[in-house]
Amino acid sequence: MRFDNLDAWLAWQAGLNPRTIDLGLDRVREVWRELGSPSLGAPVITIAGTNGKGSSVAVTEAILQQGGYRTACYTSPHLQRYNERIRVDRTPVDDDTLCKAFERIDRARGDIALTYFEFGTLAALWIFAAAGVDAIVLEVGLGGRLDAVNLVDSDVALIAQVGLDHQDWLGDNIEAIGREKAGIMRPGRPAVYSGSDMPDSIATYAGQVGAGLLVNGRHYRVERHDETWDLLAEQVEYRGLPRPAMHGAMQIDNAAGVLVALDALRARLPLERPAIDAGLQSARLAGRFDVRPGHPTWILDVAHNPQAAARLDDMLGEHAAGGHRTAVFGALGDKDVAGIGRALRERFERWCLVDLSAQPRGLSAGALAERLAGVVDSDRLQLCGDVATTLDRLAAGAAADDMFVVFGSFLTVGAAMDWIDARG
Predict the structure, then answer these.
(1) In the chain, what are the domain boundaries?
(2) CB atoms within 10 A of CB 235
(3) What span, in angstroms and rounded, lies between the C-alpha atoms of 374 and 372?
(4) CATH of 6-282 given 3.40.50.1820, 3.40.1190.10, 3.90.1150.10, 3.40.50.300
(5) Is the pTM of this model over 0.85?
(6) Tell me, which fold does domain 290-423 have in CATH?
(7) What's the pLDDT at 168?
(8) For residue range 21-63, what is the model confidence (pLDDT) as tens digits?
(9) pLDDT (tens digit, 9 = 90+) per residue, 74-112?
(10) In this predicted model, what pLDDT tens digit does every residue of 133-150 receive, in sequence order?
(11) Please, what is the Cα angle at 309 between 303 and 313, to 5 degrees?
């Protein structure tokens, strides 16, 4: 074996391909063939989208688990431990399992320079093929058409809300990005769009390949009530559904899309109503309006594009704070920092900008300030160091009724979670 521990494998993978992001399916297809193209042996749900795909994965996983099915889930990026990305029965796989999968992939790849993400995707599929699960849920990492996850022909494709993000790789407008997301659809297989304002390119692509596209507001609709909601469609009808446990009005749209997608698999994965209700009420997702109550209150959210930031702003508007509100913000270089700032500029009395420059693509606090210039008043911007040092300082001077909102990249929120865990 090339390495005997997970950290060494991951450090090596990060430098194997000179390009951190190198979209395309040729490399993973060739290595998968060398691995014998093992059958996954279970229905596959692939989930794409700019915002809401992580929540959709969590709801899908929870409902299937409540229905008594063994699940496998692949998500990215991780917050605290790489193992979070690959789960069987809602449990992250252990280091030994990952190392063995990496070794097998390394032997199969020859001189193919896989990226860090491609290694992880192939490892997940290799592990899932041997796990004997009942259902597999795959979250697209970036885009869809050329993402390594799209190696798999899914049984149903689910696309959550599409917005502007990763424009350097996916295109600079909604229609171009929608076309990339639509690439996960397959001929003759069902697909669902659960967001609002669907790009026309998604319907166009579905028609071109012959996918059976079901669209929120067209082919099914949601009716909201004070404590419950209804999902109404020709194929399926649920009334009096409990509100999802996760925060935010958009979670009902996410959950509705999941239920329509699962209904398309009802012949292979039948579900009773109690499992659906329990799944909606039990699904959780760390780092998505993740409220850590106490004195002061900490809220963690991986909002890293303007659309997600606007939703964070809406949710903060419903969350009372008696004291000061402080933003702790860190982002990567490909993000629309100004757009994020515009969405949240009235929400905080001060912005503590953390330094991620030690990470690939991470922005320094100074670079963040430059991008926020003219968007957020300069007297509210503070240049800070790393996340842990910043949170130490803020906690030391906090009043009991203050609120700190840590948001931006997964790196920012993951570091905050580590800091909170260390404090007990």
Answers:
(1) 6-282, 290-423
(2) 12
(3) 6
(4) 3.40.1190.10
(5) yes
(6) Protein-Tyrosine Phosphatase; Chain A (3.90.190)
(7) 67
(8) 788 899 999 999 999 999 999 999 999 999 999 999 999 999 9
(9) 999 999 999 999 999 999 999 999 999 999 999 999 999
(10) 999 999 999 889 999 999
(11) 120
CA 345, 348, 350, 354 torsion-angle sign: negative
Which residue(s) pair with 224 in the sheet? Answer: 229
Confidence of residue 171 (pLDDT cuts 50, 70, 90): confident
User: SS in 3 state form for 41-55?
Assistant: CCCEEEEECCECHHH
- Is it true that 6-282 and 290-423 share their CATH fold? no
